[in-house]
Amino acid sequence: MTTEEVEAPPAPEKKPDSFVTLFLRNLWSANTVTVTILSIFLALVIGAVLIVVSDSEVLSQFGYFTSRPGDALNSSWALISHAYADLFKGAIFDPASVQAWINGTGTWQAAFNPISETLTYAAPLVFTGLSVAIAFRGGLFNIGGQGQSIIGAICGGVAGFAISLPVGLHLIVAIVAGAVGGALWGFLPGFLKARTGAHEVITTIMLNYVALLFLSWLILQSGIQDPNRTDAISKTIGHNAQLPALPAPLRVHLGIVLAVLATAGVAWIINRSSFGFELRAVGVNPPAAKTAGMSVAKTYTLLMVVAGALAGLGGATQVLGTADRLTAQVAGQIGFNGLLVALLGRNRPWGTLFAAILYGALSAGGNLMQVDVGVSLELVTVLQALIVIFIAAPALVKAIFQLRAARSARLGASMAKGW
After folding, report:
1. Which range is most confident: 21-25, 114-118, 404-408, 412-416?
2. What's residue 65's pLDDT?
3. Helix (H, G, I), strand (E, B), or coil: what is residue 339?
4. Alpha helical stretches, state H, 285-333
5. How many other C-beta atoms lie within 10 A of the C-beta of residue 268?
6. Helix, strand or coil for residue 233?
7. How does pLDDT run across 233-247, given as a tens digit for each residue?
8. Contacts 24+ apart (CB under 8 A), 39-48
9. What is the number of other CB atoms lying within 10 angstroms of the CB of residue 228?
């Protein structure tokens, strides 16, 4: 080194990013929350286009769009805003009803009716969604939630009107009967998977049909069918076995509270219990779990029993809280919709709960959209499907919005340090 050479000054130390900087950077990254919100946004945008296209009167104004674009744009905005406003009013609350309640010209039941409908639709979906989610965490794809919920509805319903017990005890017996019925229906594919290797998708799909046909036959039998009716419908559930509900016309009942408790229970099982550790290990790598001394066959069987019990609770909740009697369609599509709810919740217990509430909100709000704006319920189903599609394909959302890679670890470290 010559005397003319001077040592370069040391580079200044780079200060660590603040929490606010990390938060803003992660806000547009490909984390779970951002992808979910953007998926819902994309579904609403595409739904808005479909709403316009399905309205012939608004669509006709696009015929002279180049000469008078304002007519088409204004009509489209009015239709879309009205439709989505009705979706909100039917699912959360109607400001007019709330204002009328405050002024004394309306009732509190009318003000809370939208959220009541949302929670009523959501309650059974939480159980069937949890059934799919917990099975998936163990490496099983439980397509049999529909059949398990039907058997749960049958057992809970029959226990509700075929026996007479005191208040409180009767309800507990009916709920337990629904859970046991679903558990037994889940045990069959679990046992076949464990002992013979039969794929659970095939066996559960076939058992769905068996359960539906059994229900159709059962409600026409003497002692089950309502003696005052000639159609396929059962006796009414006893008052002591019905889930307590808010005063009419509100329909929300104790089932939503049971759903929250079930969510907490499943979260504890997966994350805190030894069985949860085993099912996660088996779900990730069955041979490695077997090498570690875990019984894969036993885990599969118990897992399907638990999943079946959850779906059975969904069916029991439906018949004891909403339907109050058995019909051929008593379970509706809650088992199949539970698949979508589990996907929407990313197979996480609490995510499944919020996904079920969102699904219930779309169902409740869709009813008002159909009545007030004339938007078909099929369009609401399309919205639900689009949300699931975008969430199930996060790479597509990342590409559309050019999201960066998530940096949740750095953000979490910043939060752990107290910002």
Report:
1. 114-118
2. 83
3. helix
4. 286-291, 296-318
5. 12
6. strand
7. 999 999 999 999 988
8. 39/387, 39/390, 39/391, 39/397, 40/358, 40/387, 40/390, 42/386, 42/390, 42/397, 42/400, 43/383, 43/386, 43/387, 43/390, 44/84, 44/383, 46/386, 47/379, 47/382, 47/383, 47/386, 48/80, 48/84
9. 7
pLDDT at position 367 is 83
Return the pLDDT at 301: 95
The set of residues, in sequence order, having a beta carbon less than 8 Å from that of 386 and lying 6+ positions away, is 42, 43, 46, 47
pTM: 0.86
Closest CA to 187 of 103, 323, 305: 305
- Domain ranges, ordered by start, for the chain: 17-54+375-419, 116-374
**Which CATH architecture fits 116-374?**
Orthogonal Bundle (1.10)
**Lowest mean pLDDT segment, chosen from 10-24, 65-79, 127-141:** 10-24
Alpha helix segments (H runs only) across 92-168: 95-103, 108-137, 145-162
Burial 153-190 (b: 16+ CB within 10 A, else e): bbbbbbbbbeeebeeeebbebbbbbbbbbbbbbbbbbb
Query: What pLDDT score does 418 carry?
Result: 35
